[in-house]
Amino acid sequence: MKRAILVAAMFFTTASTFAAPAPVSDVSGGSNDDRIAKLERIIKAKQQVEFDLQRRMDALQNEVLDLRGITEQQNYQMNQMLQRQRQLYEEIANLTAKSSTPAAPAETQVDPTTVAAASSTLGETGSYEAAVNLVLKERKYDDAIPAFRDFITQYPDSSYAANANYWLGQLLYNKGDNTAAKQAFSTVVSKFTDSNKRGDSLVKLGMIAEKENDSAGARALYNKVLKEYADSASARLAQQQLSALKG
């Protein structure tokens, strides 16, 4: 935007220079016809300068409008991403709340080969969104497990890989498969150190340690969260778990 303002200032300066009235001496000498011809040339030159200025101003205005449109589009996309992220967090919270109740049997079982074939045709983003939709929209939690596993296999270094591992760990944790869930959460902790899901994964590892009667291990994990992610939602949950921890 600053570049656009500078360009506009240059245009105005150029226009002022070219549009300045010609000296009287330019038209004072010669016959009437010569003076008229000179005046016509001056007027024509001035009109041309004004036309060029208007054309450039129109181009500048279009550029400003384009920049404004890009900014609005980026703001919209960012808002959509934030809304989607909130939905994911809410769904994770709901899954955690349901973890203490027996999981309902799945209506259908998806063949892992079918999941892999579908993922290969959807691409990275499409495969991740398809796996998430199995949780958020279709509530097919058992089917989402092979979908996330296949995504992680195909795109281990994807920008979605940390969240995919966390989703997988959460789904496995809710099914009571603590060993596999621990592996998924540990992957987030060790491989994706910059992920915003690392603190949450440490808390989940602490909760698994509690289920395995490893109070010392759970306490160490919760304290690690408090140290590394102070004043975060993960730290508040770790403090709650730590306060309730016995032994």
Summarize the structure.
By secondary structure, the protein is mainly α. It is built from 10 helices and no strands.
What structural class do helix, strand and pairing data support? Answer: mainly alpha
Name given to the CATH homologous superfamily of the largest domain: Tetratricopeptide repeat domain
How many strands, which pairing sense, and closed or not: the largest β-sheet? none
The CATH class of the largest domain = Mainly Alpha
InterPro entries: CpoB, CpoB_C, TPR-like_helical_dom_sf, TPR_rpt, YbgF_tri
Protein name: Cell division coordinator CpoB
Domain YbgF trimerisation: 32-105
Keywords: Cell cycle, Cell division, Coiled coil, Periplasm, Signal
Identify the notable features of this structure and list them briefly.
single chain, 247 residues, mainly alpha, Serine Threonine Protein Phosphatase 5, Tetratricopeptide repeat, elongated, disordered N terminus, TPR-like_helical_dom_sf, signal, periplasm, coiled coil
Describe this structure in words.
With 247 residues, the protein is an all-alpha fold. The protein has two domains: 2-78; 112-244, Serine Threonine Protein Phosphatase 5, Tetratricopeptide repeat. It is built from ten helices and no strands. It has helices at residues 2-19, 25-28, 32-98, 112-136, 141-154, 161-175, 178-191, 198-211, 215-228, 233-244. It is elongated. Mediates coordination of peptidoglycan synthesis and outer membrane constriction during cell division. This is Cell division coordinator CpoB.
